[in-house]
């Protein structure tokens, strides 16, 4: 059974790098705010191997009015471990954490290919698609808790 643990930001790089920054250096896996006290990272493990990660930042988006908003970033599951329910478990862990913090809104910039996954988790698209650097088309998605 996979287990989810809270982890330091550096532990996410083993998944962020191959999945989200393939062919790029580990430096590109460092996100602004990774080590703020209000940021948390979770990893899903099996046999002490990290298989997927999610990070949750306290950050407000201009689209929303809720006082305490949280942003999911760095959501990734190793390619050979995808479609086994691990991503689902990671999002649930992040939601549980946000609930504990009394957060009312979760939002993020979703890659186009991941929109279907987040729809299944109850998130909806808001606004127009936009481009992020060399990564491609993204959508803002959100859920009110
Ligand atoms: C998107 C991602 C995190 C999903 O994680 P995962 O572990 O593969 O997802 P799960 O197995 O938990 O899937 C949960 C449900 O969503 C579905 N799903 C998974 N990926 C999907 C996708 N890209 N599009 C549509 N549905 C998807 C699954 O089939 C499953 O549905 P079911 O419950 O009906 O069987 C993972 O595929 C990934 O890391 N992709 C590459 C990086 C990426 O795009 N990250 C998101 C950046 S915004």
Automatic annotation (TrEMBL):
<feature type="domain" description="N-acetyltransferase">
    <location>
        <begin position="1"/>
        <end position="145"/>
    </location>
</feature>
<dbReference type="InterPro" id="IPR000182">
    <property type="entry name" value="GNAT_dom"/>
</dbReference>
<protein>
    <submittedName>
        <fullName>Acetyltransferase</fullName>
    </submittedName>
</protein>
<dbReference type="Pfam" id="PF00583">
    <property type="entry name" value="Acetyltransf_1"/>
</dbReference>
<dbReference type="InterPro" id="IPR039143">
    <property type="entry name" value="GNPNAT1-like"/>
</dbReference>
<dbReference type="InterPro" id="IPR016181">
    <property type="entry name" value="Acyl_CoA_acyltransferase"/>
</dbReference>
<keyword id="KW-0808">Transferase</keyword>
<dbReference type="GO" id="GO:0008080">
    <property type="term" value="F:N-acetyltransferase activity"/>
</dbReference>
């Amino acid at each position: 059974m996979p287990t989810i643990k809270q982890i330091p930001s550096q532990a996410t790089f083993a998944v962020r790098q191959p999945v989200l920054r393939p062919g790029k250096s580990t430096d590109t896996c460092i996100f602004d705010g990774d080590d703020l006290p209000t940021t948390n990272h979770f990893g899903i493990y099996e046999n002490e191997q990290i298989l997927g990660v999610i990070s949750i930042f306290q950050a407000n988006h201009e689209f929303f009015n809720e006082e305490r908003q949280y942003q999911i970033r760095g959501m990734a599951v190793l390619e050979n471990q995808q479609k086994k329910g691990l991503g689902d478990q990671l999002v649930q862990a992040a939601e549980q954490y946000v609930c504990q913090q009394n957060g009312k809104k979760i939002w993020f910039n979703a890659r186009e290919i991941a929109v279907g996954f987040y729809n299944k988790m109850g998130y909806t698209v808001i606004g127009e698609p936009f481009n992020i650097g060399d990564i491609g088309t993204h959508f803002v998605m959100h859920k009110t808790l």
